[in-house]
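Protein in question kept underneath.
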Amino acid sequence: MVIKIIKHIGIPFICCLTMVSSIAMGNAPNTTAVILLGCAFYLSIALERKLPFLPNIQFIFLALFHWSSHLNWCLLLYYMLIGFSIQNGQKYTYTMQKALMYIGLYTCIRLSYVPFTTYNLLVSIYDIASAIMFVLLVQYVIRSESEKKRLREEKDYLTTHDPLTGLLNYEGYVTTVENLMVKRFSFVLVLLDFQDFKSVNYENIHNGNETLNQIALLLGSIFYDSYAISRYAGDRFAIILPAKENLISNISESLNSNILGFQVTYSFAEHPLEAATKEELISLAEERLFKSKREIWLKREEHLFRSEKMKMIGELAAGMAHEIRNPLTTIKGFMQIATKSQYNIQPWHELIMSEIRRMNELTAEFLQFSKPHISNMKPESITECLDRVLSLAESDALYRGHTIIFEDTKEALYIFIDRDKIVQVLLNLIQNAFEAMKHPGDVHVRIKQENELAIIEIEDSGEGMSESEMEQIFNPFYTTKENGTGLGLSICQKIAVDHGGSLEVKSAIGLGSIFSFKLPTVDV
């Protein structure tokens, strides 16, 4: 701003004052020349942006104007040209050479119209010394201001940015939210909480810091169009995104796909649709994040409780199996002898034998809980395992009129399993899918990979389940089948847990169900 004032007000004023004074005092040899040359010098200053070559010849116009005016007042204009050279960031040595050239030129022109006396000669030496001091002083001032500006920028950066990741900190992201509201922008605030990060940070702080940096880089690449990204509290991040159609659903889909490598809890708050002030917006997002974390915590506690419950049932099953099998064997043998001896119990024979078979089946299923470890564990190909399952289920599918659609992954995936147990689980899930469809339909069997997990999905087109049914489906003895024991899915889940995996279900009334069997992969 100051430079503009000097160029467009200071220089024309000095030029006009010099021209008028030179003409009034009769110093100018040629009135027309001094006026034209003064205007030419000013125009070379005013048009230098449009004509980039002008700064290289401005000193020529100034020298001619100085010679035509015969006034020493032009010295200030020479100093201004020297100042412009310094302000443009030219090197110190180059600026000093230029300053000496300008003052040397000024001195030569001045000595051409003043008497060559000792005083005038000494003044010339003084002018050269003054130019050197001027350059040194201006350079010092500019460098001092530049250093102050750099320190201010660093201080502002440290005040508003996280030193580890380089992202905005809490103050920085709150300021950004406030500025966007002032500008009346529509945007969505997304808060992320990485639930599994604390275990990484606990094991090794260096690994934790490295992980945070990787997360920051990944967030920057995924949300490249964001207004701001912030790490505002440990493993919590805030992202401010411009409001778009279907933005929230698209982000939810991405975050649920485990794209960040960690299980992440997230929440949204939209301005101005849901909140008008920054306090309301941030409070709303934080409240929703807390509720999401609480729901996940409750599910984990429920899963832990279920695991403990399964352990207790396993201990119970071991005792019951021993107590029940012996009398069953005795009763079965007695009934067989009685039938051969023509005892008149024929009308109840099938009923008694049916009950005995049912109790034997129940006992066998109880024994699944009592086995503490999976045996015969070795690396197996998922595809080969599923080929075995599909060949066993093919005849049942044809009989019921169903079609099995198998979608394999492109990569060969291996899992460390007891093959017979996994075949048992998958066959059970496919048979459940058959029974869930009252009319002929399709059963989709897919293999997927997410990070270090292999996922086998079994999807039916049946009637689906309600929320209350999904909450109880893995509980022992819960069944919707007329002749079911309610232990099939409980056993499947126990086998999944024993293999270090999990069994989950998604369902909706009228849309069918998807069972996801997740197992850790191994390198072969």
